[in-house]
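pasting Integral membrane protein YfiB for the record, 159 residues
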Amino acid sequence: MGNILHLLYLPQFFLAAARLRKENSLQNKLAAMKSYGFTETNGDWSLGISDTILFDKNDYHLRADSKQQIRTMASRLATTGITHSRLEGHTDNYGEDGYNEMLSLKRANSVADAWAEGANIPRANLTTRGLGKKYPIASNDTAKGRAENRRVTVVISTP
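structre below
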């Protein structure tokens, strides 16, 4: 009779263990994102990476050191189970809208390519958008503000 009682509680044990693993996994994901400076807004975690760190002026090819940093970050986040994200390119308000949108998309794609390599995930797991000058985070009236607006943002939906 005692053995039957233990077998009845066995499924509950496995459910509790699975819940604990899921909670630990979520804590690991959040800790990894926070360690890189991701911030949470409306259920998504995002990190804006300045274009001056990633690219030369009016270029969309990643600098070699930036490419390695992106790969390293993506690899670490992938070990926690983060394998999907959205990358959004942004520009300042200088230049034509069409050019800025094309440049911002090419930059987002460059970061996404390096991200997929580093995380060892299919490139199809990453979506990209070129938003041009539509969503500034600082005033475009100063050089400092324009520099802040030129960025690629990595967005990860709440795990």
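The beta strands are 39-41, 44-50, 85-90, 126-130, 151-157.
Residues 2-157 form a domain with the 60s Ribosomal Protein L30; Chain: A; fold (CATH 3.30.1330.60).
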